[in-house]
Fold this sequence. Notes:
The structure holds 2 protein chains of 2 kinds. By secondary structure, chain A is an all-alpha fold.
Amino acid sequence: MQNHTNKQYLSYRHFWQLVLTKIRFNLRSEVAESYLSYVWWVLEPLLHMGVFYLVFDVIMNRGGPNFVAFLLCGLVPWLWCAKSVNNSARSMLQGKGLISQTNIPKLFFPLVVVGQDTFKQSFAFALLILIVLAYGYPITAYWLWLIPIIAVQILFIISISFFVSFAIPFAADLQYLLKSGVHLWMLLSGIFYDYRRILLPEHQELFLLNPMASLIASYRQVLMYGENPRIVSLTYVALFSVLLIGLMSAVMKRYSNHLTRLVID
Amino acid sequence: METPVIRLTNASVIFEIRKGPFAHEHFPALSDINLDVMAGETLGVIGDNGSGKSTLLRLMAGIYQPDAGTIERATSQVSLLSLALGFDPKLSGFDNAILSSMLLGASRKEALGKLNQIIEFSELQEFIHKQVRTYSSGMRARLGFSVALTMNTDVLLIDEAMAVGDAGFKKKCETAIMEKLSSSLTVVLVSHSTAPLKKLCDRVICLNHGRIVAEGKPEVVLAQYEQLK
């Protein structure tokens, strides 16, 4: 008898088509659920910004003249990352219905989360660009660097989301650690302070080992300061992400059966 | 000549039940199953709750891998239909039907092409555009059935779904399955009630504590099962 047991039941093209269709449907149902959801996608980063602005600029008087643009350059990329990672953590458990019904590759679940959050954050990115322009920063050739910077960030987010979505079903307790971990990570990413002013020069390289710190620094260099981004750091982040994506894809495939049972029971 | 589409050889599925942070217990859900599912047959599986019926279906569908023994499939198009149905409750029946069709192997174009047929068979009418979370279990079963019966998979695994839905729709599904019986569709039907199995199946196996305890003609095996109780 011809054996199809180990044949992949979805082709790559078909798999990606499914991912994109699911992302579209999920977004559509989010919009259907509250008519204001489009508005929230923009309003939410503004509210976050309002909080930081109040604390650092108004109360502590630590802001500086272009604090709003500066804040948003850090906050918008950060929220994109944090949301994708937090939502990916639950993605496998929320996919229980599908997992108990089909043997769809497990990467489907974090990919849908990242796709959905990326689409939503694109509204915030548009807002970021508008505010930077409103503050009088000119569009320069450096802005072209945005394309590779965003590409690297997508890779990085996918890699971390794969890791988190895989790890959480094995130890649900990790979810609590993840929450504090993401908080700490935010504080270490230089969203509301300029590392060049706050850190000693000898500590700056260490600080920039954090991929989000060097990504955020790069966004500011390109959009506000008219400088090249941190090309070497970005290359390292891209390499790290690609390696982690490859590793996690292999691990997910290897432990797919294990994951299925963890999720169903 | 009859050929097997699914062959299980000494297949076992053993669950690990966590008893604490480092302790776990092993529980065999299926032990040493030897079974050929023949092309075109309608095979019934009967057994009490916890006898391993659903695990057997998941094994056949490729959702579980066996911990011991082997499973061979002659087709990659095996679709599992159960009460849980894997629908996303937040999406509309319409969207879920497209996704389910795609999960059964259709491209998006093909899925859209078959959609009218699916909606018509399901008799859901305007409910098709409502979120699935507002559906009754009968309506969910209708949608699932309609997708699976429209999509022409090779093997259809049905878990208790006949038990839900009103009499009229049940009848319609039975007729649809009867029609498919003449085609090459293979059906595995799981139930803990004997009536639908007696009516529809060519062959029945009886599961008890994860083992096959009887196999053969429906009347014989189902009578044995009644006695066992």
